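Record 1 of the preview.
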Amino acid sequence: MGIGLIIVGISLHFSNALPFNKKLYTLSYVCLTSGAAALVLSLFYVLEDRCNIRYPFLPLEWIGMNAILIYVMAAASIFAGLINGWYYDEPGNTLVNWIKKHIFFDVWHSKKVCHLW
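->
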């Protein structure tokens, strides 16, 4: 199902029938993102429940058990303070800056994607 939705979304985009547009929530965008979510969910199911690999998914399990706490922390901007408040060596070395430098700049070589944060 997930692969089918991704194929439908990509084919709608490249046929210029309905290009990807998040602001308008076009059918191609919805098909692509829901297909990707279905694939990720099925991958997590196979790894955690079928292969019994639980250790890497413990943070997700904790977030699922404390969903209201996470929602309140995000709504009160406490989450952003926790992520940006931790640094190493100097105050400019936060987790967000590390992700920007090592993922966006070094891997994707893109400053444009990095400005979406």
